[in-house]
Specification:
Shape: globular
Strand content: 5-15%
Largest sheet: 6 strands, parallel
Number of domains: 2
Structural class: alpha/beta
CATH class of the largest domain: Alpha Beta
Strand order of the largest sheet: 6-5-4-7-8-9
Length: 278
């Protein structure tokens, strides 16, 4: 740690899966967090639910992760037509790495009773098991597309009815691809796990929030959006508004700059006080 220099750390996630290692790591983590001047949490929801962050209430500031839509490619008419011919516009989209906490096995269970395409972009450690589950269930409406270029992803985000994000464990601390859905003005479906997913997706406003690991509730949420176009459209509009008011990269940068300036000013005052008393 630099002597007499202000320090800031962004705290993304508690340690969830590695509980045994946490016993040894926790004292070091606490000592480090005690030593910094400010801790940034990426959502108020995570701050409220983290047993680590609750130990430092006077140090924590909330600055959500932001995205810059101008960095996303504008999909060509050719690509839009290609994917429209394949899936139409009444499909749900998941984007992300296939990991244990993403809840995709729950989504596949829910897909049995959904009469529309469910499109998955990504690969990852659970991919083989998920494809086997889909085959065992006889699912013909679930489409594994693997990794795609950014322009194809933007095209599918443009066309889809909504974004489904079934992460069921707190290892999912925020949900960048959920935020991409909001940025593209899409209603969202997510699970209540006490993290940033429910800061992005506000139940009843920007989408539907269900209990984690509940395939029936997840399926009901998808049917709700399928059967209520006006509601889905309004949730999409509210999702885009929330992105523009809370989650732009400009807003994130402004918040960090303001916090850096505050820390610098406080540090200068402390140094001046030390000089006067020395």
């Amino acid at each position: 740690m630099l002597r007499n220099k202000p320090t800031l750390v962004t705290y993304h996630s508690d340690i969830i899966r590695q509980r045994a290692l946490l016993k040894f790591y926790a004292p070091l983590q606490k000592k480090f967090l005690n030593s910094v001047d400010k801790i940034v949490a990426t959502s108020s929801n995570y701050l409220a639910s983290s047993q680590v962050l609750e130990q430092f209430p006077d140090k924590v500031e909330v600055i959500p992760i932001g995205l810059d839509k101008s960095t996303y490619p504008q999909p060509s008419d050719f690509l839009l037509q290609k994917w429209r011919e394949m899936f139409g516009t009444q499909f749900f989209l998941f984007v992300g790495v296939f990991r244990y906490y993403k809840g995709l096995h729950i989504l596949l269970d829910a897909a049995k009773d959904i009469n529309c395409p469910i499109v998955l972009i990504g690969t990852g450690p659970t991919e083989r098991d998920l494809k086997k589950q889909a085959a065992d269930l006889g699912l013909t409406n679930v489409h594994f597309l693997g990794q795609l270029p950014d322009e194809d992803k933007a095209a599918l985000l443009t066309l889809c009815l909504g974004v489904v994000f079934p992460s069921h464990l707190r290892s999912e601390a925020f949900g960048i691809s959920l935020l991409e859905g909001a940025m593209f003005g899409k209603p969202m479906i997510s699970s209540e796990i006490g993290t940033g997913t429910s800061y992005i997706n506000i139940a009843g406003l920007t989408g539907v929030v269900v209990s984690p690991s509940d395939a029936k509730a997840l399926g009901a949420a998808m049917r709700q959006l399928l059967e209520n176009k006006s509601q889905a459209d309004e949730m999409g509009r509210q999702a885009k508004h929330r992105y523009e008011s809370h989650f732009t990269s400009e807003r994130m940068v402004e918040s960090y700059v303001s916090l850096y300036q505050e820390l610098t000013a406080t540090s200068r005052k402390r140094q001046a006080a030390r000089i006067r008393t020395s």
